[in-house]
Amino acid sequence: MRKTVNQRAWLFILPVLVLVAFNAILPLMTVVNYSVQETFGNNEFFWAGLIWFEQVIESPRFHDSLIRQLIFTFSILAIEIPLGVIIALAMPRKGAWVSVCLVLMALPLLIPWNVVGAMWNIFALPDIGLMGYGLNALGFDFNFTRQIGDAWFTLLLMDVWHWTSLVVLLAYAGLVSIPDAYYQAARIDGASSWAIFRYIQLPKMKRVLTIAVLLRFMDSFNIYTEPFVLTGGGPGNSTTLLSIDLVKIALGQFDLGPAAAMSLIYFLIILLLSWVFYTLMMRNEE
Amino acid sequence: MARITLDNLGHAYMPNPVNPADWALQQLDFEFEDGGAYALLGPSGCGKTTLLNIISGLLVPSRGRVLFDGEDMTTRDPTARNIAQVFQFPVIYDTMTVRQNLAFPLRNRGVPAAEIDARVREIAEMTDLTEMLDRRASGLTADGKQKISLGRGLVRDDVNVIMFDEPLTVIDPHLKWQLRSKLKELHRRIDRTMIYVTHDQIEALTFADRVVLMKDGGVVQIGTPVELFERPAHTFVGHFIGSPGMNLLPCIMAGDTAMIGDTPIAVANAASVKPGGALEIGIRPEFVGFADRGLPVQVTRVMNAGRYRIVETVTQTGQTVKLLASNEDEVPSEATHLSFDPAFTRVYRDGWLAGEGRGA
Hints:
The complex is a heterodimer of chains A (286) and B (360). By secondary structure, chain A is mostly helical. Chain A contains twelve helices and two strands; from the N terminus they run αββααααααααααα. Chain A has helices at residues 9-35, 51-58, 60-90, 97-110, 113-124, 130-137, 148-176, 180-188, 193-221, 225-230, 242-252, 256-282; strands spanning 37-39, 45-47. In chain A, strands 1-2 form a two-stranded antiparallel ribbon. In chain A, helix 7 packs across helix 9 and helix 9 (193-221) packs antiparallel against helix 12. With 360 residues, chain B is an alpha+beta fold. Chain B has two domains: 4-235, 3-Layer(aba) Sandwich (Rossmann fold); 245-355, CATH 2.40.50.140. Helices cover 24% and strands 32% of the residues of chain B. At the A-B interface, helix 8 and helix 9 of A face helix 3 of B.
């Protein structure tokens, strides 16, 4: 059969192109536009070159936020990924309890993010919150609004509570897709539970875990709502993560130029680290 | 390295079986002799995989016992039974090389490294995997992967039995033959009991010394491939084995003579047919020939099957009788007669061979 060559296919992808242009490319270009200009109000803009980029890269404030952000993201990854896998392994594979477990796991994911922040804020309050009050009653001096360590503890715990389920669900999906024959063969080969995990379950979960790591990395690097509601970035600046800092600069101080430059740097860091993660996890794939 | 005895075995997947249909595996007594090559043959859902899993220890039977050399193994796990199994779909450890895959069962059992190395080399040689030993197992083709599965079964030299659960399902047709002859060769070489589950009669008949033919959870006939072909114990065997299957023609007994309509037919088991039940004459197409006198038929169709032809004829009462004719033979084009070889013509009562077992 002869293939007909024409340009009609472009028509079919046009709607997608328009959609992507309006929700991603155009806003990003606006940001690029702001990042190289200076304004003093009145909608007047002046060319500023790369000044804002230099300013952001050299700014200790940005460095601090970035370090806090990296500590936060790597901490939650180090907790949520192994914990999610352990919970998924412990979940039943068949029977009535499967649905119960899945619904329980899905619940935290269904709660609006600002509600999660508000819940944990109240939960952790030292005077009236169950956790805060309980910890103090047990003899710990717990006050997340005043002590940096306590603020971080609450922040990490909240994220683990909110998002470990996502890892669990992905890992579980990977686990149930393993045919029974693999487990039977392993039993016949005399494999220990650890060997089964190491040589069957983990390799079979690799793809979904890659997705889990990437999703959790990107989402946690962008996190705003929950810490904003929980601590507002405090005490002091101790829990001011990148996005909170960015919003302070852009909307608090209306420094559009530096905020735009920071957005772009922020975006490039996420892109770079995602690529690193992906390459590392996929390096043995044929 | 063991004689395997199935003692009054039965299995139902539901908790309280009432009807015979509730049993995936009906009452079964059988003995697998040490070193034999057996095939469990039957259509899908006949219980052959259930039986295999009971022998391997992946399933505990609802009733009866499994004995290895007289020792009760019914509730012991696969490791304790020291068996090997090759599954329908190749099971390999993706992240390991071929060498590591083959060594895995030995490593799990704490065999010294030097011994593992020697053994893996030997098995790789047997299964033609030597060239690929250091390649990642996940990169191999389906038949290569299935060879790894097989190799993992062979690598332990003390396994009691190696079981195959339709191992050639995902293999390309032209490689099936190769792998099958490989299996046969390996069986001769290592002299280990092998049980091969399949729904493919050619696989079963070429591999096994003894074939266990199953249907609806029960064993219909156990015998050598020749016995199953020449002396089917049930019309199902006659139909399931052979291509085309056995001809079946309703008949009546007039004294010691079987009659199809008005035509007397000489049969091998006339004397043992007891009265009652639905009677049929079973005769394989291979043992039917054209003759001047005998059963009057009309030739309706001639199909070319390569080295021979399948001739379809119809009797005066509308029954189809198939026979084989060589390409040189002349096939009569109109009314003719058929003769049946009396040694291979038998009467079946209610499906069972008259005068034997359940047909007695």
